[in-house]
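Hey,
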Amino acid sequence: MALTPSTMLPLGTLAPTFNLPSTENKLVPLSSSSGKSGTLVIFMCNHCPYVKHIRTELAAITTEYAKKGIAVFGINSNDVKNYPEDSPEMMKKEKEEAHYTFPYLYDETQAIAKAYQAACTPDFFLFDIEHKLVYRGQFDESRPGNKLAVTGQDLKEAMDALLSGKAIQRDQTPSIGCNIKWKS
């Protein structure tokens, strides 16, 4: 596990489009977003201890905010040859066990992770209704072993501001997690 921070893609960047297979074996394009208020793209995987650490709260928060109009997509871009626990079959199992209600997509070529300049898992990208990046940062201050409660505070504050039409804090703390497992 290599501790890696987000690259902090510039705010205002347009969301790179995608059309990726889901755990239900359906191609899901970014344009399928039914989020009337915005879109959240999360780069994640099954085995990362940082993703596991926030798993329960992530499932609850994404379900709550989807009901408020934020479309959510989870994307796994890891090399499954070297990390078989992140395979599409295991993603399906993880989605069910974690109670994720969002599409969990597989980026086999890793082209989408590269387009988003994703660096770690988890890595969060929140876009407004025009698909302009308004937040890329941490879920909250909690990390495995630091004994802080998992709240999703930073991400929730950004989504609340987006929903209420308020400015989102431009000084955003990078997410930190395991590096994306790039193919060699």
